[in-house]
Amino acid sequence: MVLRLRDVTVRYGDAVAVDAAVDRVSLDLAPGQVLAVLGPSGCGKSTLLRAVAGLEPLSSGSISFDGKDLAGTPTHRRGFALMFQDGQLFAHLTVARNVAYALRLRRTPSAQVAVRVQELLELVGLSGFGDRLPGTLSGGERQRVALARALAVEPRLILLDEPLSALDATLRERLAGDLREILHAAGTTALLVTHDHEEAFALADRLAVMRDGRVVQSGDIDEVWREPVDEDTALFLGYARVLRDDAARLVLEAAGLAPAPAVAVRRSALVVDDAGPVRARVESARVTPEQVRLVVQVEGVGAVDAVAALGSRVAPGDEVTVRVDVTRLAVLPITTGP
Amino acid sequence: MRRIAALLLLAAGPVLVLGVLFVLPVSGMLAEGFVVDGRLAPGAVIDVLARPRVHRVAWFTVWTSGTATLLAVVLGLPAAYALHRLSLPGRAAVRAALLVPFVLPTVVVGVAFRQLLGEGGPLGFLGLDGTPFAIVCGLVFFNVAVVVRTVGVAWESLDPRPGQAAAALGASPSQVLRTVTLPALRPAIVGAASIVFLFCATAFGIVLTLGGVRHATVETEIYLLTTTVFDLRAAAALSVLQIVVVVGLLALAARLRATPDPTAQRAVTPVRAVRRSDAPVVVATLLVLGAMLLPILTLVAGSLSVGDGWGLDNYRALTTAGDNQALLVPVTTALDTSLRTAVDATWMALLVGVLVSVIVTRRSHSVAERRVRSTLDGLFMLPLGVSAVTLGFGFLITLDQPPLDLRDSPLLVPMAQALVALPLVVRTLTPVLGGIDDRQRQAAASLGASAWRTLLTVDLPVVWKPMLAASGFAFAASLGEFGATSFLARDESPTLPVVIFRLIGHPGEMNYGMALAASVVLAVATAVVMLAVERLRVPGVGAF
């Protein structure tokens, strides 16, 4: 394990009575892996990231890297790089100067700096942008420069604070792919915090879900996604509804699974299919670029989301039959209170 | 075109006020020098500028002001950081305390430094009394607050994240300071330095009390040439020189002053707990604070010492007119006059200042309109730097005949003081008004609010506190105003600073003690006002 967090607790203010912003968090991160900490805003994930960077003192617990405790190591000696949501480029320096910042701090000979900057700008797809000032760049370009700057000295660990959140949807998707490729190409170990599960899925290998300062679930990304630990986690991971008791039993039965007290269903868990075993009545229908999204009324279950193939003519009031897509639901191991 | 016409109409009032009370007197004073027997004769003025004494005076002004500016910046930066970014106990009180010297009457500061450095003073052994170094110390004492305020406010709203990003990239704290923080603060620092230089170069009361005739700056030389030598041509020549330099510096400061971006919320970074590594900054701040307190404490101690012991005799004597008929009225009467005058000056400065601020901060719809607005902005900053002596003397020689016979008007002194306080009001209000997102006004208008209603619901809630703070600031500045007042106040109704100056110039031990006591009274009055202003927590007060 490269990065190891044990019972990390961060409190603002001295009073023990104050709820900790980060409460006894333990995480491990292996070399070359990308770990995403996913949670709603205010859950303490940014504080956790800042604590790893050395910008926030720990109230208790420990953070170690390669077996060495980081407690006494100030931010600038940790050898990590931090990339903020909005890049935080130095506005008074050109793009090339920004990228070269860490290299110059290390007194790298300027010929080498030039070569390395060239290389990095190429890596992030911004060759020829060296002489521009950050103010003249678009949001996506700024994030790329920030990434190049962070990668310049081959950090032992790169810390990403919602790196794509400030961008618009199409740009985000494109840059997410690039970012993942760049991180993997450089073999960089990365810790990412985000509130957007799409961003987490696009970038990370492993996932830790955080709520109210605590990590409620962590593991490989598909494992967490398939088996959310509770209702809140399921909803946060993008499941549309959680069905319980009779409704859960009915849906699981239709999917050919054993009954369970609760099941989380995605919006596409029910698919309109003439051969489907469940009868339903369409309440509303909305066309999206990929499929028709429906809300259907199923007897014994209530209103649930469903999808139909594009071009299928379904209208509110129609009687249809649906099947259950087993890959689109997750059985919850426990039930939280009603 | 219609917008510009409306703008000019709105600006007509303040411009007229500035024209009559500022441009007319100053140009009247200049005309004294340039016009000989009804003909323009600039040659004589140029001759004056070639005099060796003028060169000496100019050089003295430049190097003392430059040194004082440098020292003020060096001392002010750590204090700005400590007082605006660290959660030091008693931060607000210290910030207010540091602002007091800035509004302290120049004469009081002069007296305090003489008490400190003079024979028998706590630092008398240094033999600095009457040296240029004493003048530099006095100027620094005055202006550290300007640096602390201006840079502190900028530092406060500086995003800490670029610095943290740099630290994460391996920059040590000193490297972060050098490569990220200082470049970001450069406009604020250079802006503060240019304003401080301006204040130093036009300082009057302090140089006059500490330097006397021996060490003259351009400002005191104008005073001496006008009142003692009656060489008006030379005085006018120096005034021209001064105005040119001042306008240049003001233009520089205005260029560097960041225009607030109304769409970006001004985020104030929360202060953080003091760490061990902050020790040098905290110690430096304490030293600055100590250096600020020393002259004031000496002053207080001096006012309380009677013969060999301590007592309140000097304060009791304030109800008298001093030894050897030093004064025509008791000091308490002068205090009363001062307070009344300052009240009048405050409402005048506020009235004009609010109008000017509203005019210069409204969004411009064309380049021409923006030019008009920024010219107005610059115009109303002028009184900040033009010699108060020129202004005062100009008042005397131009406003003495109908229709502008104000010489015997009780409002003459308040008007002059209001003019001096006007830039302070404008500088406090413009960042606030400029910081209101125009879209809020548009939203109000689109919801059916009239222009008047918009002003009440959008502007007023944001601006009332700064207006109160600006009034306090203007009041304190008027209370201590000495340069122009010393020309204009009539002998039978002098203000407190004028009385203090008269008392220190008059023989008699009692008179000096009274001067000290009166200085303490004046200092306390201004300090109380500034503490009240500080409680309002308006960031722009004292920042330029």
Entry keywords:
heterodimer, A: 338 residues, alpha+beta, Rossmann fold, OB fold (Dihydrolipoamide Acetyltransferase, E2P), 2 domains, six-stranded mixed sheet, five-stranded antiparallel sheet, 9 helices, 18 strands, globular, B: 544 residues, mainly alpha, MetI-like fold, two-stranded antiparallel sheet, 22 helices, 4 strands, 73% helix
Put the structure in a nutshell.
The complex is a heterodimer of chains A (338) and B (544). Chain A has helices spanning 45-53, 95-105, 110-123, 139-151, 169-186, 197-203, 221-226, 231-236, 245-255; strands spanning 3-10, 22-29, 34-38, 60-65, 68-69, 80-83, 157-161, 190-194, 206-211, 214-220, 241-244, 262-265, 270-272, 278-287, 291-298, 302-309, 319-324, 329-331. Chain A is α+β, with helices and mostly antiparallel strands.
Description:
- The complex is a heterodimer of chains A (338) and B (544).
- By secondary structure, chain A is an alpha+beta fold.
- Helices cover 28% and strands 30% of the residues of chain A.
- In chain A, a hairpin with a 2-residue loop joins strand 9 and strand 10 (214-220).
- Chain A is globular and about 75 Å long.
- The mean pLDDT of chain A is 86.
- In chain B, helix 2 (42-49) packs across helix 11 (232-256) and helix 5 packs parallel to helix 21 (496-505).
- Chain B is globular and about 70 Å long.
- Chain B has helices spanning 2-34, 42-49, 52-85, 91-103, 106-117, 132-156, 161-168, 173-201, 205-211, 218-229, 232-256, 279-304, 313-316, 331-361, 367-379, 388-398, 412-434, 438-446, 451-480, 483-488, 496-505, 509-535, and strands spanning 35-36, 39-40, 305-306, 309-310.
- The longest helix of chain B has 34 residues, at 52-85.
- Chain B has a single domain (2-535), classed as MetI-like fold.
- In chain B, strand 3 and strand 4 (309-310) form a beta hairpin.
- Chain B has 544 residues and is mostly helical.
- A two-stranded antiparallel ribbon of chain B has the order 1-2. Chain B has a two-stranded antiparallel sheet with strand order 3-4.
- The chains are: A alpha+beta (338), B mainly alpha (544).
- The A-B interface holds A 50, 53-55, 74-84, 88-92, 101-102, 105-106, 146, 149-150, 152-153, 159 and B 159, 161-162, 164-173, 175-176, 179-180, 183-184.
